[in-house]
Sequence to fold (386 residues):
Amino acid sequence: MKKLKILNIVGARPQIIKASAISRAIAGEFSGEIEEVVVHTGQHYDRELSDVFFDELEIKQPDHNLQVGSGRHGRQTGMIMERIEDVILDEKPDCVIIYGDTNSTLAAALAAAKQHFPVVHIEAGMRSFNKTMPEELNRIMADHASTLLIAPTNAAFKNLMSEGFRPENVAPYSINNPRVFLTGDIMYDNSLFYADLAERKKQDFLTGLGVADREFVLVTIHRDSNTDDPERLSAIFSTIKELSEVNSMPMIMPLHPRTMIALRNRVPELYAAISDHPFLRVIPPVSFLEMILLEKRARLIITDSGGVQKESHFFSRPCIVLRKETEWVELVKNGTVKLADANPARIKEAWDYFIANGSTLQYPAFYGDGKAAIIILKEVLAVFRS
Fold:
């Protein structure tokens, strides 16, 4: 039987990591049934934030690299659409797999759907209900251009139902008659797979930072709603600085280049204070394995990242989210994630709660059993194999 040909589309670091679960499953259980073509849009232009992950995580190198690079939303999305359309027409896949909510996600969805190639959206149905966020627009429009929508959680599945998607649809499936499917989260697959690898490969990394297990806080900040607003940026980092001093708590901060530039240019005095501080350790962006190790060993996590707040749950760590809302609403309802926005009082309140109650928190299995990639590929074969 002819192999099913899929285009696996990545562009940003989280997508490369998510795609690794699909690639591993194809290389293993589905090697005789699926042909994988990896397309890297080049949305992340920094090698430390993208290409290095293929090497460290032993992921299949891209068959196509579109080398789009950074840019304003319209320009970047348009360039990806133009270049990825050529790849789609040349490769003629049976389906195109996209992930999450980046400009690469939206561009690939539109390019494929307009040329009548079916789209599989992994992480379909995620909603923050804030359409001022570019990611929210991307994920909504990608869902409505897809033929197979893979929901990672019950909440995501319910969101799709509320938007008119119908689980009772039957084959043949199409963009006008899409299939909606609940699977669990492939990032849980990856966290289980890579956690042991991180422990084996990256012990020297933690030793070099000079921090003890459960005796430091991990801080990651990259979202443009925080980095592009001097008032929010100042409020967040001033509060983090204060908390570290009052509690004599080391903070490990692998900062995105955007954050470093914003601090230096918009709040230079605060940047100088943070750069030379006894409790604040600013380090360059870390690899995925290093990030997993930091997440596993931290006492508490402070972030504006959707992925990091979810990974905090995988490793049973409480998390303060520096946003007004989150797409991972089940974590907020569970009490292991608290939304603090850029409000110093709310950040401190969440800090005090987690420091006092961290050992009593519960972390239910919201995201499946660690076998989502296998479930997804079985569904892909069922839907698209003629």
